[in-house]
Amino acid sequence: MFLSTLLFAAGLLVAETPDTLQAVTIVADKGVVVSRTDTLALRADGTATQALLRIPGLGISDYGGLAGLKGVSLRGLGTAHTDIYLDGVRVSNFQSGQNDLGMLPMEALGSAVVDYAQNSVSFRTAKPVFGDSPFAGQIGLQAGSFGTWMPAIRFDVKASERVAISTYASGILSKGDFPYGDAADRRAGNDIRQLRAGYDVFGTLRGGEWQIKSYLNASDRGTPGSVSWPSTDRQQDKNYVMQGTLRKAFSDLYTLSISAKGAWDDIYYKSSWGDSEYDFTDLQLNSSHTFRLTDWWGVSLAADIERGTLKSPGLYDAARTAVISALATAIRLERFQADLALEYRGTFDKGAEGLNSLSPSVDLRFTLFEGFDLVGFARRAFRAPTFNELYYPGYGNPNLRPEDAWLFDLGFDWHPELSEDWTLGLKVDGYCNKLKDKIISAPSSDDPYIWLPYNVGKVDAKGIDASLGLRYDNGTFAGGLSARYARQSALDKTPDSYTYDQQIPYVAKNTVVLAGDASLSGWRLDAVWNLRSGRFDANGEMPDWNTLDLSLSKDFRLGRVGVLGLNVTVRDLLDCRYELVRDYPMPGRSVLGGLTFKF
Question: Over the stretch 307-320, which tens digit does the pLDDT of each residue have?
Answer without folding.
Answer: 999 999 888 899 99
